[in-house]
Structure formats: structure tokens, C-alpha cells
Amino acid sequence: MDADEQKAYRRFLKDTIRQEIDFRRTDQSRGVPAPPLQKAASADAERVDLPAPDKGFKMPPMPLSRAIGRRRSRRTYSGSPLTLEELAWLLWATQGIRGKPVHGHAYRTVPSAGCRHALETYLGVLKVQDLMPGIYRYLPLEHQLVFERTDDHLASRLAAAALGQPYPGKAAVTFIWTTIPYRMEWRYDLAAHKVIALDAGHVCQNLYLACEAVDAGTCAIAAYDQERMDRLLGVDGSEEFTVYLASVGKIAK
After folding, report:
1. Dihedral through CA 99, CA 202, CA 91, CA 117, nearest 10?
2. What counts of helices (H) and strands (E) characterise the chain?
3. Residue-wise over 79-94: b if at least 16 C-beta within 10 A, else e?
4. Whole-angstrom Cα distance, residue 134 to residue 153?
5. Which of 52, 72, 117, 126 is most buried per CB count within 10 Å?
6. Are 184 and 165 in contact (CB under 8 A)?
7. Over the range 43-73, which residues count as b (16 or more CB within 10 Å of their CB) and which as e?
8. For the range 8-13, what are the long-range contacts, defined as Cβ-Cβ under 8 Å and sequence gap of 24 or more?
């Protein structure tokens, strides 16, 4: 990378882009309706109801200081399955809705620039009780999973799409976050892309901490084959594409 390329990429991390934007010309300022809070699921899609947070997750107590102190990337898993309640807890902790949407905003368990929440959560499920293996997507507004597709070679395809890193293929489940950029661009124009990346970090850190409460571990993965991962999820790679993933499994003792 030469100096000019380096400078251009570093600019992405700075706030100078926001200072150059005429926010009077964003779609929000021009009165264009806001994009949906979550990606729609077809009416006939198979859905899975998840144990609800308002019923009280029966998660073991975990002091925050202990969760932070134990947090580390874990790439080796016991092979035991997650329970559906444990998966529901991890989904709620990373993208769950706190209360009912108000004025077009859905306040979640993680922060997001302008409360735009431009991420979607897909799951590569291999070992979760009461769920057949396959690709699922989380619907935060309903606290449900929507079944996307089955795949007899899911474990090997997850590993291959992660550039040969083996742990997604050995995990109980791999969280795969996509972004729908326009959900953030509607408000922030070209300044959207930095904060989408920041938001993904907030989500994954919550996953790390939430895993500790259920004797599970996770490993964030930023190196992957973009086209393979997008194809595996069935997203178009333009209006929606993968930005981050993390394998999750029970800790090997």
C-alpha cells in the first residue's frame, strides 16, 4: 500500500467526512420515509418462537466484573449443544429490543448511531437443541428466528467461507452479521459507514460477555471470503452483505 492509499483508508476512521456532508440533503432531511427497522420475512416462512426476556431467562448469575475479567477469544469447544434458551439469551443480549418501538426507533441492548441499527443477525446453526441445523435469521422485533435454508455441508462451508479457519465448522452456532447500509445512510450519508463498523463492535463485545454467563466461548472473525459468505447467507452482496462473524460453543473443560 502506498502513502496515498494509506491516507485514503485512514480517512475512513476520521470525522472529517461528516464535516463535509450537507445533512440538509440526506434522505431523512428530504422527507424520504425511513427504511424498515428489520429485514422482512416472507409470510409463509418457518418461524421459531424463542424464550422471551420478559419471562425471565434462567441464566446463571454472572457479575459483570467476572465476565469482563474472563473475556477472551475461545476457538476450542466441547461439542455439547447450546440450549434454545441459551441461544435466545445470546440473541437478546446482542440485538434484543428493550420495550416497544417508539417514533420509528427500536431501542436495543446495544448502542447504535442515531438508533439506526443497520445490522442483521444470521446464524449458522450446527448444534442447538430443538433446532435442525441450517441457516437462520433473528427477528428482533418479534424475538423469533426465521428459518432460511438447510445445508448438508454447512460445517465445511462455514469453515471454507472463513478462509479455512476451522472453528466455525466445529462451533455450536456461528453468528454472522450483515449490514443493510441504507438503513444508516438514510440519516448519515457517507458518514454511515464508519458508524456501521463501530456498531458491529458493540454487538460482538456483548456476545463475548453474554457467553460467559452460559459457560460458552466465542471468537470474533473479521477475515472471511466476502463472496462465499454472502452466497452462503443468500444476500446480494451490495444492498446487504456480511461485515463480521463469531463462532460460539460450549467451553471445553
Report:
1. 60
2. 9, 7
3. ebbbbbbbbbbbbbbb
4. 10
5. 117
6. no
7. eeeeebebbebeeebeeeebeeeeeeeeeee
8. 12/193, 12/194, 13/194
Rounded distance, CA 33 to CA 182, Å?
Answer: 12
Q: What is the pLDDT of residues 122-172, one digit of tens each?
A: 999 999 999 999 999 999 999 999 999 999 999 999 999 999 999 999 999
Which domains are seen in the chain, by residue range?
3-37+47-250 (3.40.109.10)
C-alpha cell at 123: 446464524
> Distance (Å, rounded) from C-alpha 180 to C-alpha 184?
8
H/E element, 211: helix 192-212
pTM for the full predicted model: 0.95
> Quick one: cell of 36?
424498515
Eight-state DSSP code of residue 125: E
